[in-house]
Input
Amino acid sequence: MGVKISNIEVYLPKDTLSNDDLAIEFPDWHSYKIEKKLGIAQRHIAAEDETALDLGIKATEKLVEKYDKNNIDFVILCTQSPDYYLPSSSCILQEKIGLRTDIGAFDYNLGCSGFVYGLGIAKGLINSGMANSVLLVTAETYSKHINKNDIANRSIFGDAGVATIIEKSDKEHVNEFIFGTNGVGKNNLIVPQGGFKHKDSGGEDKINDKTKSADPKCLFMNGPEIFNFTIEAVPVAISSVLEKNNCTMDDIEYVIFHQANKYILNYLRKKINIDKAKFHINMTETGNTVSATIPIALKDALENETIKKDDKVLICGFGVGYSWSATIIEI
Amino acid sequence: MKTSEFIEILVEDLELENVDLAVDTELTELDDYDSLAIMSIIAIADEHFDTTLTAVQLANINTVQSLMDLIGSDKFE
Output
């Protein structure tokens, strides 16, 4: 017995923000570099009145057109942009979709590592007999956290919602996981204000940015330090997950990392020595959508038939926390 | 590494083909010195020198020479 990913549906907000749009707002900005170096041409941005939960609900609505919603007996929802402190977005989603009421549901707060963590939780719930069909929703709207003058973050992040079904299977399709956590990086990707530590004021000390976009109410990312974390943690995570699954990179048909940006991904690929042909880089139309990038990439690779049935796919998420996780799945 | 080789790598990775880059060039004053350039410098230090450069250290450099001093003067011929 085991579990498998059986369905993925993606919802992208209608409005897009292209590099040309940004170049109009920021005439001094080197827009030509962004597509070339970061591999991003546009991002989808949620409307003013459209939240991460709305994106998650829309993705789930697409999913239940194809999948019997009465099978779903657990919902886990990953976001860092919840509608409310309470209640949990997953409960609101249960009611909006009309899911059964004899099911479990909760939210968890993770960023770019969120999908792989959710997959691990879903596997645990199913293999321990607590659930048969888990709906994993990864929905994020970092655009709402970003200061409008913050060209660096606006050029990277896009919004998206993804609904994924993980269900019981005759054979195990989701193999062993590795997890990583290091709170030493807590200040390097943070929204300092708005929680109870600094509710309406304070938190300025968390920001080492002297530009006009520095605002403790908004998302702050220390790019150089996040890059340092990534190039240190990810290669170790990859060798650990291969070892834990008793295989080598040669046994892996395809590799999907969290689509942070093209520059970071290319650097990691070279450092870890992964064949270019089996390494996913595609965030041209969506940007870095945080916990949504890996399932978007999975769906993309499946639809393009880059990955086929029974292929071994290594997935790795890494980011805010710091938090990271990796596993090997068979589609 | 030879200083000339290091300068060639900087020119290529930071896309500074239009700059007459020398050890006394003020890197941080260049138009192209942005967050992408800083990421490239971190990658160069990691790939070629197996050295980690922190954000705080990088905030204090100005010339190419100061970057070389940060990486370690013993690593250059």
